[in-house]
Amino acid sequence: MTDEIHLSRVESALEDRAYPADREALAESFAGTTVLFADGEGDLGDLLADVDQETFESAADAVAALQNVLPIEAVGEPGQSDGDA
């Protein structure tokens, strides 16, 4: 059975781990966990494996690093602006 979590709940899921945490170990522990995006989904283990940072000091640190590898579909509709031009 594969776990599914919404993107907004990733940090709380990561908080269940001990820190500092190794990127590789964290990625392995979340392999098979599907993150549901605004438009689509991704494997949390794969996303963590794509992060350049080797260790995380906290769940918040891991989430901040994840922000750099999330696809554009994760946070909204591609090509949409947050404000007027």
Automatic annotation (TrEMBL):
> What's the short name of a Pfam family annotated to this entry?
DUF5789
Organism, by scientific name, is Halorubrum tebenquichense DSM 14210
Q: What is the lineage of its organism?
A: Archaea, Methanobacteriati, Methanobacteriota, Stenosarchaea group, Halobacteria
Q: Which domain of life is it from?
A: Archaea
- The protein depicted here goes by the name DUF2795 domain-containing protein
InterPro entries given for it?
A: DUF5789 (IPR043899)
